[in-house]
Amino acid sequence: MASFSAGAPATGAPGAPVAPARLVPSPSLPPEPASPVLREAEPVSPVSPVLWEAGLVSPVSPVSPVLREAVAEAARGVLAAPGAGRRLLRGSARVVAAVGRRTVAMVVLAALWEALPRLGVVDPTFLTPLSGVLAAWWDLLLSGELLDHTRASLIRSLSGFALAIVVAIPLGLLIGWYKPLADLLNPVLELFRNTAALALFPVFVLILGLGETSKISIILYACSWPILLNTIAGVKSVDPLLIKSARSMVLPPIRLFQKVILPAAVPTIFTGVRLAGAYSILVLVAAEMVGAKAGLGYLINYAQFNFRVPDMYAGILTISVLGLLFNQLLVRLEHRFSTWRTS
Questions:
Q1: CA geometry: angle 224, 191, 164, nearest 5 deg
Q2: How many distinct helices (H) and strands (E) make up the chain?
Q3: Cα dihedral angle (289, 290, 293, 296), rounded to 10 degrees?
């Protein structure tokens, strides 16, 4: 920076006016070049005052060196962290491996189903290749026949299943909690629990007829037992220390049942609910084979009598998929109502 020195003071008589001092540049320092000045005619990009005050932008350049350096540093950090990429790849590989382990058996089954009839190992007349079954399934879907049968089956199955939950869970809680009631009903429970539901289906048909009532009733009967027995077992298997601790805090019986007994019995209850879901599908098919005019069981039976083998396998495949989806839904509900448990 250029420096300046004051000239020698003027001499004169006392009281005379003093001449102003002159600024003389110092020859020892080189002159500094002038700083660039933003011209008024030069366009300036509009910037946010918040970014301006934070130092991320400047009035001369829309992106300040601070922001450019931060972006470059972030890029260098991403490029210099190959471990993160390896962890991501390992996680993806684990997911793919888990999915592969769960689907490999299904893929092998589908391959065998397709290959054995085509190779002549089994007669394709009685075991249609999987591609033919899928083609028949698609034709039934396009015609609307499959949807009609599926709707009829779902209405019957879900109705009996829902009624079983409504009836069996409260009854199981009462029997498991009150010992006198358990002693009274235990002989009857032991008698009917060992009687197959399908063995009683003719009785239901004789009493209730061939309509929807008998079919829903037999599904209700079949689904009630696993729910009832597992609910009783769940209540009886609650840790006695939990009950004693709750009673020591003078917890009312209703609150004790709500806060201790019921949450502890939920996993066992859902085990019975999942079994009942499977029973609702199995018993439904057998019930629809007798005196029904719609439903997947009726479709299977009708296709067999008319030697429509691909349609028969299409109905069986549809029932299997419905049962799988139903079970997965119940598993999700079990996790939802058992979130308090630690894994």
A1: 5
A2: 13, 2
A3: -20
The CB-based long-range contact list for 136-140 (8 Å cut-off, 24+ gap) reads 136/308, 136/310, 136/311, 136/313, 136/314, 137/314, 137/317, 137/318, 140/311, 140/314
3-state secondary structure of 80: coil
| DSSP structure string for 234-301 | HHHTS-HHHHHHHHHTT--HHHHIIIIIHHHHHHHHHHHHHHHHHHHHHHHHHHHTTT-SSSHHHHHH
Question: What pLDDT, in 10s, does the model give residues 217-261?
Answer: 899 999 999 999 999 888 888 777 777 777 777 777 777 777 778
Give the integer Cα–Cα distance in Å for 223 and 197: 9
**Structure-block tokens of residue 75:** 């890029």
> CB neighbours of 219 closer than 8 A, spacing ≥ 6?
156, 157, 159, 160, 161, 164, 279, 280, 283, 284, 287
Reported residue count of the chain is: 343
CA-angle at 188, arms to 264 and 275, nearest 5°: 45
Can you give the pTM of this predicted structure?
0.65
What is the distance of C-alpha 303 from the center of its chain?
37
Non-local CB neighbours of 111 within 8 Å, separated by 6+ positions? none
- CA-CA-CA-CA torsion for 185, 186, 188, 194, nearest 10 degrees? 150
